[in-house]
TrEMBL record:
InterPro entries noted in UniProt: Znf_DskA_TraR (IPR000962)
Protein name (record): Zinc finger DksA/TraR C4-type domain-containing protein
Residues passing through the membrane, by range: 12-34, 46-71, 83-104, 116-137, 143-160, 165-185, 191-208
Domain of life: Bacteria
Keywords of this entry: Membrane, Metal-binding, Transmembrane, Transmembrane helix, Zinc, Zinc-finger
One Pfam assignment: zf-dskA_traR
Zinc fingers, dksA C4-type class: 306-330
Zinc finger DksA/TraR C4-type domain location: 301-328
GO molecular function: zinc ion binding
Length: 334
């Protein structure tokens, strides 16, 4: 045991695991914001979704706690008490957090599959913190292994998400991963029930995701080949642009501190150049992801199909914007 179960702040004693959960929650919000911004979601609107999801999860946690306490006192023979409290509360927190995206995706024409992918990555990072905290408090090697495996899973998925994985696949992979981890490290029937539920949820998500891709787009082979050449050329140009922007970053130039430290005008000019450079780099990175996604769609035979609604993308849009993976109706969610 590396950490005590409680930390004293004067006369106040706080359970260490609560501090771990708080730190994990901060990083959960950061990952949600970062991934949503990378996917092109509106920051303020997506933050609204995060807030509502947090409130929903907290509400489910609070209400179940009241229900469990009531049953423990007045209905001690209720079958609900045979379930592990940690299992039940974890499932309800996940359910509460994943419920609001259905409303927001329908209201704002967002892809529910993309939102679930972002949530899965955020919860994966949150699980790393919780597992490490449990290891430091309880000293169980199982929690350390879970933290290491989850971090490896997170980094592996992060590497390919956006251009090799279709939207929705990360959520299913995360569900399958949790099901396997629970089945390996937790043997009680309550945990195994939770594991089975996660596995079924992952399969259902794949089923509904595949239905979105049931449509096929009969584009001329010559058009596909032309678009593919354009995208490959665009990919090379964007990679060169990224390299050049990083090389010309004013903050990374040799001797900048010696030459600029005493000159206010030069410092202001340097900051302006840095802002412009970062903006151009962000645009190039976003476009590169879009190009890679379009190339991946060509490879699997799904180019020209909106990844949000599954309808064909107008050919005129593809001619003007060959890296488009959504129709005009859902272009804001790209």
């Amino acid at each position: 045991m590396l950490l005590s179960e409680n930390i004293n702040f004067g006369l106040i004693r706080v359970p260490t695991i609560q501090l771990v959960l708080l730190i994990g929650f901060v990083f959960w919000i950061f990952v949600m914001w970062y991934e949503a911004r990378k996917d092109g979601f509106d920051d303020e609107r997506f933050f609204d979704l995060v807030v509502v999801s947090t409130i929903s999860a907290a509400l489910f946690y609070y209400l179940f706690g009241l229900l469990y306490t009531y049953i423990s006192i007045y209905r001690p023979n209720n079958p609900l008490l045979s379930l592990s409290y940690e299992v039940a509360i974890s499932f309800l927190i996940l359910f509460g957090a994943f419920l609001p995206p259905f409303y927001f995706s329908n209201k704002r024409q967002w892809s529910i599959f993309r939102i679930f992918d972002i949530y899965s990555l955020a919860f994966g990072f949150f699980l790393v913190f919780v597992s490490l905290g449990k290891y430091l408090i309880d000293g169980s090697m199982n929690y350390l292994l879970i933290a290491v495996l989850t971090l490896a899973f997170y980094l592996g998925v992060l590497r390919f998400r956006g251009y090799r994985f279709v939207s929705g696949l990360v959520f299913s992979l995360f569900s399958f991963y949790l099901a396997v981890i629970i089945g390996i490290f937790f043997k009680s029937w309550g945990y195994l029930l939770f594991s089975g539920a996660l596995f079924i949820i992952g399969l259902l998500n794949l089923y509904y995701r595949s239905k979105k891709y049931m449509n096929t787009r009969n584009l001329p082979k010559e058009f596909i080949e032309l678009v593919k050449r354009q995208l490959i050329r665009k990919e090379e140009e964007l990679q060169k642009e990224q390299t050049g922007l990083l090389k010309d970053d004013p903050y990374l130039q040799t001797g900048r501190t010696e030459s600029n430290s005493e000159y206010m005008d030069e410092a202001i000019l340097e900051d302006t150049r840095k802002t412009v450079s970062d903006a151009r780099l962000n645009i190039a990175q976003t476009m590169l992801i879009e190009v890679k996604k379009a190339l991946a769609a060509i490879k699997i035979g799904k180019y020209g199909i909106c990844e949000v609604c599954g309808d064909p993308i107008d050919k005129a849009r593809l001619k003007v914007y060959p890296q488009a993976t959504t129709c005009l109706k859902h272009a804001d969610g790209e």
